Amino acid sequence: MDISNLFNPNLDKIQISAIRRFDQEVSKIPGMLKLTLGEPDFNTPEHVEAAAVAAVNAHESHYTGMAGLLELRRVASSFFADKYGISFDAESEILVTVGATEAISASLMSILVEGDKVLTPAPLYPGYEPLIQLAGAEMVEIDTTQNAFVLTPEMLEAALIANPETKAVILNYPSNPTGVTYNRAQIEALAAVIKKYPVFVISDEIYSELNYTDEKHISIAEFARDQTIVLNGLSKSHAMTGYRVGFILADKTLTSQIIKTHQYFVTAATTVSQFAAIEALENGRDDAATMKAEYVVRRDYIISQMTPLGFDIIKPDGAFYIFAKIPADLNQNSFDFLIEFANAKQVAFIPGSAFGKYGEGYVRLSYAASMDVIREAMARLSDFVAEKRG
């Protein structure tokens, strides 16, 4: 019996992440140096690892409540209030999720219905659109390539007027893939537009601790709290990708609905990881500082090496990515360019096309890799470009 046509038809609209597919493809090449995935090359802080071990030894292996350990939610409430000045009640306005990825899924599946639209600045992280499509909704990209990858209030308002079916706006800052972030005045201006319309803003702030500007990270929840669903987590700030700890912070009228989706997705986040997260947020509030300092060194080195080769780079203010425009005299098809580079020099970046139609012609490098790897990758890139130019 053929049951292959019985799947959700929306699945036909989506594919495995182009980032993962490209990474798997080039990983087959022997001796590959990879600046592809957004995973810190640092180890989880030892005091956090010790807390995880202690939880195992204490037999903390049972379910927590659906929203997560109350102690963790209290520590998270304090952390985000101290760091970013946003106040959410631990008991009713914070959910612990299985990474920021599940936070994205639970949030989108809780608010979207068939026919809705979701506005996003572009280029952007490719993990949003498949979920939007699964819900039967449509993602509308706002091209920011002519404005240094910065979304302006004017761009946002024009898109909202042109798309009256809009249910939500997604902001991701500091951004993957561009590293762009926003200052207080910019966020306040975007919030002023948001507040004029009956829409949600899903603010993906997973890179908030990796902000390299002189101004601390500003959450849009400070200005549009009632409409904002803040997403965050510990994968980037504490190098805890495998622990899968994320957070949803929103007004209780929102979390009381999102927890229903969260419950049926995962029941609750992993218990041992939650105990590790308590330690991370309580006694490791500035654990990201050492990583940040090293990331800045790596970022500046890559820019110093790629710019003379003709790559156009807007200096990122956060995260750990370089989004570089391929020189005009080289192949502008980012996939073909990088496949040739990978085969010729055994170095892998991610094609800009993986980040939507406005990413074509760019390449993304993750500098969450050691300086030794980065230096060698830059040397090989220099050789490759020189050879292409004859």
From TrEMBL:
PROSITE patterns found in the cross-reference section: AA_TRANSFER_CLASS_1
GO MF terms, alphabetically ordered: pyridoxal phosphate binding; transaminase activity
One Pfam family cited in the UniProt record for this chain: Aminotran_1_2
This enzyme's EC code(s): 2.6.1.-
Keywords, ordered alphabetically: Aminotransferase, Pyridoxal phosphate, Transferase
GO biological process: amino acid metabolic process
The protein's name in its UniProt record: Aminotransferase
Native source species: Pseudolactococcus insecticola
Gene name, Swiss-Prot/TrEMBL: araT
